[in-house]
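Notes from the 1:1 (GR / supervisor)

We went over the backlog. Supervisor wanted to see one worked example end to end before approving the batch request, so GR pasted a single chain during the call. The sequence is below; no edits were made to it. Supervisor asked that the structure be written out right there so they could see what the output format looks like.
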Amino acid sequence: MRCSSYRKKIDVCYKCGHLGHRMDVCPNPNNRVCRGCGLRNPDQGHQCNPKCDLCGGAHLTADRTCKARYKTPYLVRKRRWEKQAEQSLPTVEDFPSLEHCSRSSSRSRSRSRSRRRSQGKARSSSRSASRQRSGSTKSVSYADAAGATSRGASAPDVTPAKGSATTPMDETGTPAAKKRALQLSEGGSIAGQVRSEIKDMMVMMQENIKNLQMAMASLVSKVASIECNVNSLMATSQQQQPQMVQQQQYNEAEFLRPMRGGQGPGSLNNHHGASQ
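Structure output shown during the call:
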């Protein structure tokens, strides 16, 4: 006996001809539709060429011979979805080989480098030409000014640009930032520039750390010397304390001796003589 998964049928009403409900629960039996051609409220002797709305076959809609009247079970649909997802995944053949990728990337890098070098050379040549032109114009203007002064005219005031006083200049007269940009455009890599700057920063940090360590060592030595001085003072004070106590006791005894009848520095006989 052949077994198959249960498939639910699509409900069809044989009273009104609509899909979605059964005949025993028809909400509006007077609103009829032809199951063959879809004509509303047909006559009793209506004849037509039937065409199924579910599968398009030459039979009534949701007829017993129609295979589309059964709903596909959820498990079957789930398996179909999984199979479609597996088929849609790219295979190994779809990806290019790593050698081809590395070759193409190296070619693109070499092309970009050559373009940068050519652009940098063109820019440097244009800048040098503009500098030569500006230098020639400046020399002419200075010559004109000298001629004007010789003729008795006042020489024009030549004021430098505002940015030249603030921007740092190197030995060649080019700003440092501009020179760095020119070096990068002529073929220098940004990564190398960044590495050199990082190295300089690390060297400066190491020097600062060494200076800090030296300062800490000197501070520790000073603290140790202060502790030694404090300990020596405490030791000397402890040694001198019993001598001071003995001296104080001796002074008290010398002061109290005349009161007891003896002669001492505080007795009256020493100043007025013996009493008669």
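Supervisor's comment: Confidence is low (pLDDT under 50) at residues 152-168, 264-276.
Batch request approved.
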